[in-house]
Structure formats: structure tokens, C-alpha cells
Queue: 3 jobs
Job 1
Amino acid sequence: MERWRGKHALVTGASAGIGFAIAEGLARAGVNVIGCARNPSTLEELGEKLPPGSGKIFPVKTDLEKEEEISALFHEIQTKWGHVDILVNNAGGGKMGSLESQSTEDWQHMFRLNVLATSICTRETLKLLEKDGIEDGHIININSIAGHTNTALSMDGIGFYSGAKHMITAMTKNLYTELAKKKSKIRVTSLSPGLVSSRVVEQYKEALGENIKGTFLDALALECKDISDAVLYVVGSPSHVVITELTIVPSGQIY
């Protein structure tokens, strides 16, 4: 990680859960972290508690469902820091419901947050890296095992979310190939966790109630720090190594 010390990372959805853990992990490794979220107050507190030698935390209030706010975020990045060397597209989420019953509004929400925000942040990051002539960089998409499997076989109600994550899987592969064809040294990774103890999972558990028994949610879960450690492993690998896909699940989870 030493080669990233003093450089800048953007972590989306950084105010809680996995995103917060990733922001803290990168900062403790000496990376300056721009953390965007709709309520970034927890990031302000984090910046005050980090030990000496850590990177700085720069909280930016951003609603990633609004493209104009993403544009404002990247304008601020360009003005203050020029570019970010690492992008962690962490923001995402889902709503429980069958494909035959969910509203169009629910689908639009999941598509904007999981797919469009990831795509726009990636595009704008690449633009700034190219503008500044940066040949080294890393884009990490926090995906899910739901982006690789038929989730209806193990759990009802997350079909559209799974579809959105499948799109992240496809886009990450395509982006890697596009950059490789250009002989770019920018690395691209899809990091796909299984069950993680997070706010989103707790919402799913609450929605299912007693029906949780027998589903994959009724099992041992990873901690958010486990995903942060995985990000540090991926980013800290030698520059000639590209970990294009990393799946991380709790012991015993079948998917």
C-alpha cells in the first residue's frame, strides 16, 4: 500500500456500513479519502479520530441518484485535487419485492443507485485520470454474489437487485477489456461479497421477519471490515497484478 500513500481515493456511500469501513481502512493506510454520502457527518467524526500518519478524510454531501450532484462532486474533485487515483464504487442498495409486484419507482431507484451512479462515477474518474496523464489507477466496483447467481433459488424478493448487480458484473468485465485493449495500466476489480452484517442486510431481515428461516440471511455473516481488508488486499497487490474478480463469503455460505 505504500505506493498509494498521500494519493486520493473516492469512496461512494461512505457514511456507514461497508463504505465507512473501506474509507477508514484506506485512510489508516495513508490514502486521502474523499467520502461522499447523503449524510456525511459520520465521516467528519472519523477524520477527527484517525491515528497520526493516516490520510485525511474529505466528506462531501452527495445524492448519487442525481447526476447534477455527481457532476458537482467531480467538479470539486478536479478543482481541489485534480483527480482521484482510486475509485471505490460502493454505493448501492435494494428493495424487497417480487418482479411481478414491485413498482417502477422501486426499479428506477435501484437502477440509478446501483448501475447509473457506478457508471457515471467511473466515466468521470477516467476522464480526470486521462486529463492529468495518470497511467496508474484502480477502479473497484463493490458487487455482490447476487451479481453471479440466480438468487430466486435461495431467496425470494431480490430479483431486480440481482439483475442490477449482474449488470455490474458485465460492465466491470467490459471496462477491464476496453482498458486492456488500450494498453492502459488502470486496474479494474469486481469485489463480490456474500452475506455481510450491514444496514441493508438488517433491512432485509426486518422485512422478512419469521420468513428468514431457511434463507441465506439466516446464517453467519461477514463484518464490514472484512470487505475493507479485501479492498486493501486488491489495491495493495503489485502493479502488474490485476485481480479482476474477488468473491468473499462467510464460512459455510453456499451460493
Job 2
Amino acid sequence: MSKETATRPTKLYFSIVFTVVFFISLILLICWLSLRPHEPKFHVHNFSVLGLADHGFESVRFVYNVSVRNSNRRVGISYDTLTTAIYHNGRPIGITPSFNSFDQEPKTTLYISHVLTGGAIAAAAGSGDTWKEIVGDRGSGKVEFQLELRTSLRYERTMWDLRRHGVRAKCQVPVGGDGALLAGYVGQECPS
């Protein structure tokens, strides 16, 4: 038997094994991509700053409505405390725990409404420079704020992963001179 005829069955055997391993790996990848849980999606529906025309943070109230969508078909989500932070030009204006832990069923949307008021805002904002910048921006007709929602979550009824995951959604929420969210930003998705 020559060397060529002895290696032919070996080449055939390895090509069959590699082909089978490749297709099994491809099937497992597709299953993993289709069955893994997806992160929730946050959308801003309303954001307003009441008392923007006043003379300081003590009388200002930030009011917001956000929806949280769980798009998973069979996987619920358990959230820890949801913390809200509001920023102007990267500086914190107010940070507060908004809600204690809660659960969300699959394929549902939760609506979250919250008001952040003067005392917490003034303490976080610190100096009057931030207020002066906000008043200056208000004079130009547009004040840029960032609403940040932070939580940790755990997926329920999943075979893939049971540990907690940190989620941070950052929403750009510019308001007009009247303190209301600009129309083009209503319903926007917040990247996480």
C-alpha cells in the first residue's frame, strides 16, 4: 500500500469530523443568540423642569415619565433599587433612589414617573455656577440635561445566567425655555 492511499481515508475521516463539529457549533451559536435574555429598553416620554424661571435650585422640580420595556418572550426581570441622576454639562444636579426593587414579567412595559425636588437638587448641584449656566442656556431657548437611570437586574427563569447585571441608561433630555421636553425627543430610546 502506498503512502497516498493510506492518507486518503485519514483525510476523509478528518474532513467529516471537522464538518460535523462546524455545523454543531453553528447550531449552538444560533440557539444561544436566539435564547439569551435581552436587556430592557428605556424610553423618555416626558421630562419637564418646573420653576426654571425662579432664582435657584430650591424651588425647581424635575418631573419625568420613563417606560421600561422587557422584550424577552419567556424571561422576567428582577430589578434592584432604581437610581435616578440628572446632569447638566456633565455635573450632577440631583441623584436619588427612585424605586425600591421590583419585578417585570416577560413582554411587558412598565411606566415610571418621579419628581426630584429642591432640597436634593440644591445639595447635589453645589455651587451657583451651575444655576448661572442653566439660566444662560435658558436665555438661548434650549437647556441640555441628561437623565441617567441606574440599576442592577437579574434575569428570572433562564438557564444561561443568574448573576446580577448593572444597567445604566443615559437619556439626552433638552428642554425649551418653558422647561418642557423638546418635541423631537419625546419617546426617544435611551442608550444603555
Job 3
Amino acid sequence: MSKKKGLSAEEKRARMMEIFFETKDVFQLKDMEKIAPKEKGITAMSVKEVLQSLVDDGMVDCERIGTSNYYWAFPSKALHSRKRKLEVLESQLSEGNQKHTNLQKSIEKAKIGRHETVKQIKWPKKLLTDGLIIYLQ
């Protein structure tokens, strides 16, 4: 007897997104409960939970029209959100690099006119972590 392994939550989410991206259509919950098990192997019982997690994460849009909820996600929206995230991360990286260079310059300025003693030279060779002293070579 072969046992069928169930899908993980991430696999279900990815397969659900594939449905939206491949069809480029708008669905109701009952439509997704019919389509997902047939096309992607997602159990009908977990479709609502997976869909709600995608809505909560902003990957799928949901709109209530009358008494029905409609769900959709288009590839262009996913691309734009990734581009925005990339721009934010790049700006954070450049800010971090700028801070790093400023701190390096201030360290160099602080070193001017100072003389290091033997004790100060030996101290960086020790590293204090978690209450343990580790001697670096």
C-alpha cells in the first residue's frame, strides 16, 4: 500500500497562486473549492484556509460584492510588489553602507593623536561571548 504524502502549506499556497496566474480570472470561494482539487491537488477542505492566508499576506485580492466574495491575483501585481520590495531593500542597503562609511571615518578621526598601549593592542585578540572567553589567533 502506498501512502500519499500531503502537501505542505507553502506548496498549497504556491499551487493556488499558479491557478490565479495561469487563468488570470476572478473566482468565488465555491469555484476555487471545485477547481483547486482537480487541477492542483489541494484538498477542498483546506482551500478556504489557504486562500485566506494568501489574502492576509496581500498576495491575493478579495472584494465583497453584494453577498459574494471575489478573489483574484494577477502576475503583474506580484511583479510590481517584488519591484517595490527590491527598491526598499536597496535603499536600506545604501543607507547602511553610508552609515558604515561615516562610522569608519569617525573612527579614523578619533584615532588621530592617540597612542595605543600594550593592553589595548592585546584586548582585541580576546572575544567575550556568552560568558566564555575565546582566544583568537
